[in-house]
Amino acid sequence: MGTELFTVLPVSEARAELARHLPHELRKREQKPLLQCLGRRLARPVVARENVPGFARSTVDGYAVRAQDTFGASEGLPSLLTVTGEIRMGSAPRHGIGAGEAMRVATGGMLPPGADAVVMVEHTEQVGERNIEVGRPVGPGENVIGPDEDVKSGEEVFPANHLIRPQDLGYLAALGEVTIEVYAPLRVGIVSTGDEIVSPEEKPGSGQVRDVNSYTLYGQVLSLGGDAWLYGVAKDDPKLLEDKLNRAYRENDLVIVSGGSSVGTRDHTAQIIVELGEPGLIFHGLAVRPGKPTLGGVVGGKPVFGLPGHPAAAMISFDLLVAPLLRFGSYEKIKPGALPVRAVLSRSLASAPGREEYIRVKLRREQEKLYADPVLGKSGLLAPMVEADGLVRIPLESEGVTAGTEVDVYLFGTDYTL
Amino acid sequence: MGTELFTVLPVSEARAELARHLPHELRKREQKPLLQCLGRRLARPVVARENVPGFARSTVDGYAVRAQDTFGASEGLPSLLTVTGEIRMGSAPRHGIGAGEAMRVATGGMLPPGADAVVMVEHTEQVGERNIEVGRPVGPGENVIGPDEDVKSGEEVFPANHLIRPQDLGYLAALGEVTIEVYAPLRVGIVSTGDEIVSPEEKPGSGQVRDVNSYTLYGQVLSLGGDAWLYGVAKDDPKLLEDKLNRAYRENDLVIVSGGSSVGTRDHTAQIIVELGEPGLIFHGLAVRPGKPTLGGVVGGKPVFGLPGHPAAAMISFDLLVAPLLRFGSYEKIKPGALPVRAVLSRSLASAPGREEYIRVKLRREQEKLYADPVLGKSGLLAPMVEADGLVRIPLESEGVTAGTEVDVYLFGTDYTL
After folding, report:
1. What is the DSSP letter of A414?
2. What pLDDT score was predicted for residue A1?
3. Cβ neighbours around B140 below 10 Å, total
4. Cβ of residue A179 closer than 8 Å to a chain B Cβ
5. B77 pLDDT higher than 80
6. Does any CB of chain B come closer than 8 Å to the CB of residue A260?
7. Which CA distances in Å does A365 have to A332, A407, A413, B135, B172?
8. What is the interface pTM, i.e. ipTM, of the complex?
9. If A138 and its partner were Cys, which of A29, A142, A159, B280 is the partner (CB 3.0–4.6 Å)?
10. CATH superfamily entry for domain B2-16+185-333
């Protein structure tokens, strides 16, 4: 039974222990049309199959020239060039240019053979029908993007597991990557438990509260590209939790039991994880505050977690244990994510050595400084959870941080790695 | 025709001019089940209809007591209390407690009438079958969340337009808000134009490049909760652009023509916006770099934009003009969003007074400092667009920022307001 093997592990050990029983990659791969890939992660590196733009391209409206023909040009002593034509957008020039010649080209137009620079139209003057005066010299390559200056064929443009943002959709489009191999969303089953918990549709009776964790965790899973399924609240009847957990286990890649707040509920959850199969429960506590009453297990290669009943604690445990699997497919492949930002801690925070602490903070701007105000409050309160902008970590062996220190803030909504 | 009325406006004026012709709110409202509301915005404030938790609730496992019965208690001289029962989770206690009495309660359990504090089980010792010794005093309210301590009935918990994050789903669940009135996504039609642009499925010929902007803008619209529809590339035939734009106008709440890079294409787009209806084109340039060749128009109360051909410029123009409409429904209701973060600029940036500049930066951590490295590159290059983590603004009248200065960085992915 759970409480007898009361194993409290630091986060790194908890991850390592779970990793021993998990596959190297939990996620499946799938081919998706580019437009469906926002927020997905690449299942393999993207290597450019051609040069971009693929031809020498003007970055301004002006005249394609041989740079050497403009050397020494000034407004007092302009270079006189003969305009031999105009380059049509989206077409190859019909002929090249020779010494003393120029062709009109618009922004994005292709340079003709012989040309190696573009003079901006503002630096030219029309002289008669066929000539221009250039009042300023251009160097070779000026106002031109070379054929492989944006992307070289064979170059790796994105590593595997890269998270696809709006600008990446455009970049992949430029490369002609219209079908992308991405990781499929992990399917996560969420079961709620605790005799005091009722579904949000219900009016709570005396001593009852509505289910918060299922909804918060649902949002967290979706935010990280997962596919979340709620299995509702299992209470009163121990058999009900067992049934829900069994079904969630069969139907999902990963299972979260969001615990009631009492020790009794937790013990019961631990027991069911043990009974679910091998290897079962791996640890029975995390050296983290808030988040200590976290259960971690693996059954037949699938992770099964018992998260704390307190919503703020459940969110932290999720970030530490579930998020890495959604983001990287395994604990072994965890990489640094979005950089934490820096802010001045506005009040001192004490911490007990021997456990990591995560403090919710709200950012505040005063003069030119960014401050992190700890959002404190009794454990179990919901309001601090929605007031905060991010998290500050106090490491395992630290005794705290004093006010006025610059600290790292992991901003909610950014792709951070804790 | 476009070029004759060449009106270049600063951003604030561009927004004000457009606002004169736009409705006060572009978005419709709709009722949605809570689980479909992640990333949506509230169409009205949420006001709590009841107290949360609704009863005095223990935050620890222990004994509900009258605080006064523990005054002066110490390990040497503990208070002796009679345990009159145990409180079942999720139920009202069957009776209250009187002087010298205690009831066993688990975390989250309801306090019995008469009790005003909870002694942690760690600070008690069982004495015989019916008594405990309390070795430490508790104050009134200690280890208890009061009935309205988390949320008071009648309190506004979220203002209108609040963006719903994972933790907010949980909070709304706690309040029993299972159907939420949110803003419906704005439907945005995206047309691409430019004789040099081909669809990403095509192999570009000489002088041609693939459509980047449609895809980047598609991602930007989706990221902000909009509903994006691509109308493909209109090129060569002027009539084709007119047809696509007409159709996009009829079928959407907002239309973006993502321009080719040349002046000719822009003029043509301007003309079509004028012909689409009243009031038509409002301005023909934005005092922003990159982003100057931006067209802003309104036709019959619908915004129609011509964004620059350069992808990085199109993204900035989108952030300045389209994003506020997606996020706030009108320019009049723009509010500060996520705070920019602070970082040390690693190289000096010059700027021309009279226009705002937006510089893409990559964040870098060195020692304890966060640096913002400008991602520079010729205009029209794609690579800088995907390398950057955020934007630094140089205001309209500034001549630049010197290296070593702390600057504000608007982080991509956060809900910032430019």
Report:
1. S
2. 35
3. 10
4. no
5. yes
6. yes
7. 38, 15, 19, 45, 28
8. 0.96
9. A142
10. MoaB/Mog-like domain (3.40.980.10)
Nearest chain A alpha carbon to B91: A207
Partner-chain residue, chosen from A169, A208, A365, that has the shortest CB–CB distance to B219: A169
- For the packed helices B263-276 and B238-251, what is the interaxial angle rounded to 10 degrees? 50
Confidence of residue B199 (pLDDT cuts 50, 70, 90): very high
For A315-359, what is each residue's pLDDT tens digit? 999 999 999 999 999 999 999 999 999 999 999 999 988 999 999
Whole-angstrom distance, CA of residue B224 vs CA of residue B296: 20
Q: CA of A91: which chain B residue's CA is closest? A: B207
- Rg, Å, chain A Cα set: 30
Q: Which CATH number fits domain B30-52+158-183: 3.10.350.10, 3.90.105.10, 3.40.50.620, 2.30.170.40?
A: 3.90.105.10
Quick one: pLDDT at residue A259? 79
A2-27+185-333: CATH homologous superfamily?
Answer: MoaB/Mog-like domain (3.40.980.10)
Quick check: A413 and B415 CB within 8 A? yes
Q: How far apart, in whole angstroms, are the C-alpha atoms of residue A248 and residue A251?
A: 5
What three-state secondary structure class fits A274? helix
Chain B residue at shortest CA distance from A52: B209
* Residues B338-374: tens digit of each pLDDT: 999 999 999 999 998 899 999 999 999 999 999 999 9
| Residue among A49, A12, A9 at smallest CA distance from A155 | A49
Render pLDDT for A175-200 as a digit per residue (tens, 0 to 9): 999 999 999 999 999 999 999 999 99
- At A332 the three-state DSSP class reads helix
Three-state SS for B258?
strand
| Domain segments of chain B as ranges | 2-16+185-333, 30-52+158-183, 57-145, 341-411
Query: In terms of Cα–Cα distance, which of B65, B60, B50 is closest to B150?
Result: B50
How far is it, in rounded angstroms, from Cα A270 to Cα A240? Answer: 15
Is domain A30-50+160-183 given the CATH code 3.40.50.720 in the classification?
A: no
Asked if A261 reaches chain B (Cβ–Cβ under 8 Å), the answer is: yes
Q: Is B373 on the interface with A (CB under 8 A)?
A: no
CATH number belonging to the domain at A57-145, selected among 3.90.180.10, 3.30.460.80, 2.170.190.11, 3.40.50.720: 2.170.190.11
Which 267-306 residues of chain A touch chain B by CB within 8 A?
none
Going by pLDDT thresholds of 50, 70 and 90, the confidence category of residue B377 is confident
Interface A-B, measured as beta-carbon pairs within 8 A, has a size of 336
What is the radius of gyration, based on Cα positions, of chain B? 30
Residue type, B278: E
Which tens digits make up the pLDDT trace of B131-178?
A: 999 999 999 999 999 999 999 999 999 999 999 999 999 999 999 999
Q: How many residues does chain B have?
A: 418
pLDDT score of B328: 98
For position B334, what pLDDT does the model report?
97
pLDDT band at A379 (very low <50, low <70, confident <90, very high): confident
| E strands present in A163-213 | 179-183, 187-193, 197-198, 209-210
- Degrees (nearest 5) of the Cα angle A198, A250, A190? 30
Where b means 16+ CB within 10 Å and e means fewer, B114-128 reads bbbbbbbbebbeeee
Q: Do B169 and A218 touch (CB under 8 A)?
A: yes
Query: How far apart are alpha carbons A144 and A65 in whole angstroms?
Result: 11
Q: How far apart are CA A135 and CA A123, in angstroms?
A: 6
The per-residue pLDDT of chain B, averaged, comes to: 95
* pLDDT above 80 for B226: yes
CA–CA separation, A321 and A305 (whole Å)? 9
* The length of chain A, given as a count of residues: 418
SS3 call for A275: helix
Checking DSSP bridges between strand B79-86 and strand A79-86, what pairing results, if any?
unpaired
Architecture per CATH, domain A341-411, reads as Beta Barrel (2.40)
